[in-house]
Amino acid sequence: MTLSVSGGHGAVERINRFLRRIITGRYPHQQQQENNHPKQNSKRFEQENTKTQQQKTNKTIQADDRRTPHPKSVKPRRLAVSGRCRKLRLSEENRQRMASSGEEVSNKQLIFRDYVTGFPQESDMYVTTGTVKLKVSEDSNGVLLKNLYLSCDPYMRILMKKQEGVGGFSSYTPGSPLTGFGVSKVLDSRNPEFKEGDLVWGITGWEEYSLITNPQVLFKILHTDVPLSYYTGILGMPGLTAYAGFYEVSSPKKGENVFISAASGAVGQLVGQFAKPMGCYVVGSAGSKDKVDLLKNKLGFDEAFNYKEEHDLDAALKRCFPEGIDIYFENVGGKMLDAVLLNMRPHGRIAVCGMISQYNLDQPEGVHNLMSIIYKRVRLEGFGAPDYFPQHPKFLDIVLPYIREGKIKYIEDIVEGLEKGPGAFIGLFKGQNVGKQVVVVARE
Amino acid sequence: MTLSVSGGHGAVERINRFLRRIITGRYPHQQQQENNHPKQNSKRFEQENTKTQQQKTNKTIQADDRRTPHPKSVKPRRLAVSGRCRKLRLSEENRQRMASSGEEVSNKQLIFRDYVTGFPQESDMYVTTGTVKLKVSEDSNGVLLKNLYLSCDPYMRILMKKQEGVGGFSSYTPGSPLTGFGVSKVLDSRNPEFKEGDLVWGITGWEEYSLITNPQVLFKILHTDVPLSYYTGILGMPGLTAYAGFYEVSSPKKGENVFISAASGAVGQLVGQFAKPMGCYVVGSAGSKDKVDLLKNKLGFDEAFNYKEEHDLDAALKRCFPEGIDIYFENVGGKMLDAVLLNMRPHGRIAVCGMISQYNLDQPEGVHNLMSIIYKRVRLEGFGAPDYFPQHPKFLDIVLPYIREGKIKYIEDIVEGLEKGPGAFIGLFKGQNVGKQVVVVARE
């Protein structure tokens, strides 16, 4: 008998299948990293570290949402709650008991209502509570996850459209939970790669518990001396995106001129900080004065501008780059891309990571200045982090020391509670988030 | 004293300066090639070979224009003409006499009237006759050329627009001759790289004689057992464009699916023939039934379609490429590019060589489907032959044997006489030419 998660998890599996296809090899868990791996039951520092990081970076991340008490929604059904520590302890005891028995518990889920056209609304998603058995079927290869942190990523909007075969992506299924990258804890596993108690990051459901029957895009977290939520961002898909997009796709050279749009976002903030140590001149665009200040004063960008206040993007770019742009890290598309094309230097590179300005349009805007790529012999290259998953361990080797030594700043925008997921997700398209948008489902 | 060519030659020099900047090294004249080089005064086979090539390929190139007698316009002033052989012999004798004395002769020129908007007209150019001294000044580094074949290339339309600093290109100067690639004979030289009697290809003026004061984009022709006109096409800039665009930019793999627009043109016809021996499936688009037949029946394309008869380009591409396109060799831009973007396979490459459909538009069409390059992780790369000039000798080593052995077909569309230049050039944008459009100024 196969244990089931109530509510469809088909979308998770489809994403997994897609990602599996495009990953060139199996994820190489590096032995040397495992040797450094703290014991699974070692003390977790994530909360202390998160606070430290907050204090180091910017007040905007010390938002009320971050201080929201652990939401009631997270408590497993039938658990007495008398304070956070007691609740967690009891939860753990009960979880173990229930896991061994395959007992059903409630499972709060964020359901995708129906295909979306135009700007997404909170009402395009709704919360429901199903049930889940906390044990994986004996004939399964799956893992049962307790989801901790969920990542709000712009690409998810693309999956809300009804479309087939767009590069292997499948749309979300109406009536099923959203899916996306997250950080989770393994409650039960029939997969030899994972065991109970493992912390993992990868594709999971927007729900309290997810059964992942084919966990190919689930990666064990081996370093827990940094905030766990970082694996939704700087240490997860967006971090790998920034790393691959800059070092691999952009072919950067010392001292080049780098422009980054959506520069204070999850990816952009990191690209700028990768470019600076190479002696690059780095300019970012963002959508508010606060974000521009953040880029210039906290994240070490040489220059930044608020695109909403520039009536002529071409002029803004010419002001910032009188000698032109060598590398454009593209996160927004549309008018910004058109303006950038006029300002590229010969043999410039455009790493096309995303086009968030276009995701809510039924008909994307036309880009008119593509002839520039001939005149300037420019390379535009679309890419996605999944192609670089096999390089993730190498990426961690590089970026973890930077984090530990405080050489890289990382800004998160955290909301507490699955119920706040829709607002947080939609906020991405309003420029509401400052830094990486994370939804906390549970802290342990 | 600097000897001058009447009429401005500033545009030639500007193009030369631009190209010089982007060439990474000096043109490496290969010694081993020089060893194979027939003596400069050896019999020329180009006319015989041209006829052979005509018979081999397609009747369309046996057009009346090709059979036009040597135009009167080519005769140097003051030369008696009594039949072609006698004329050439007398011309040579007189030229030598005049060259040594620096005598002035008439110089028919095709003048660029003024900046062009919209579709170019023949009246945007006009013929005039100036004078030229047939000797280079002693204090110059230049060469004096007698122009033989001129190349009609779509990029020239871009130089007819008034614009500054488009990737280093400078517009043509109103009142000065057009410039472009051509094949010429050196009448006099103060440059150590060239000597009287050398045959060269490179940037020259649309006129009978051109003084090139800084001949950095002039390359000695070392192999004359093929038609000289080929150095405006398969052995010159368009050939190098096809070679670099396919082998270098497109990163082809055995058996991939290749689509080529403007496939019967100077570049497209070669790309298809480069792709076939790699086991690629090759489809071309062109603008007439005759061209489609040529692609399928003469040039070895697997499939071809007339884009003017397809009301839905996306459907046409899906019909030809049910599994998608790995490589698109882009010559046209606009709607075709938009349709292709919907049909690219993951990790596809688009070598962006030209966008002829856009050159006559004041505002280029918008391209809407660029998000596909993210979904499919597609690379678009603009390129130009000048970046690959240093590889030209290697290119010749590869392509010359193919030509000699008849393994590659090459179709030219030749008109006789500088006066026919405007019509031939404008014909490029009407799809009038079948194969490489060449203008004969003189045959020797």
Taking all Cα atoms into account, the compactness measure Rg of chain A is: 22 Å
What sort of overall outline of chain A do the alpha carbons produce when their principal axes are compared? globular
Number of helices of chain A: 14
Q: In CATH, what is the homologous superfamily of the largest domain in chain A?
A: NAD(P)-binding Rossmann-like Domain
Summarize the largest interface: chains and residue counts.
Answer: A-B, 37 and 37 residues
Strand content of chain A: 15-25%
Low-confidence stretches of chain A: 1-9, 14-90
How far is it from the N-terminal to the C-terminal residue of chain A, by CA?
29 Å
Q: Helicity level of chain A, as a percent range?
A: 25-40%
List key phrases describing it:
14 helices; Rossmann fold; seven-stranded mixed sheet; homodimer; 444 residues; alpha/beta; Quinone Oxidoreductase, Chain A, domain 1; disordered N terminus; globular; 2 domains; six-stranded parallel sheet
Description:
- Two copies of one chain form a homodimer.
- With 444 residues, chain A is of the alpha/beta class.
- Chain A contains 14 helices and 15 strands.
- Chain A has two domains: 102-233 and 411-440, Medium-chain alcohol dehydrogenases, catalytic domain (Quinone Oxidoreductase, Chain A, domain 1); 237-404, Rossmann fold (3-Layer(aba) Sandwich).
- Chain A has helices spanning 10-22, 31-36, 46-57, 64-67, 84-101, 155-158, 237-249, 268-275, 289-298, 313-320, 334-341, 372-375, 392-404, 421-430; strands spanning 104-112, 125-133, 143-151, 179-189, 199-205, 209-212, 218-220, 257-260, 281-286, 303-306, 325-330, 344-352, 379-382, 412-416, 436-440.
- In chain A, the strands form three sheets. In chain A, strands 3, 4, 5, 6, 7, 14 and 15 form a seven-stranded mixed beta sheet that branches. The first copy, chain A, has a six-stranded parallel beta sheet with strand order 10-9-8-11-12-13, with helices on both faces. A two-stranded antiparallel sheet of chain A has the order 1-2.
- Chain A starts with 9 loop residues before the first helix and ends with a strand.
- At the A-B interface, helix 12 and strand 13 of A face helix 12 and strand 13 of B.
- Strand 13 (379-382) of chain A pairs antiparallel with strand 13 of chain B.
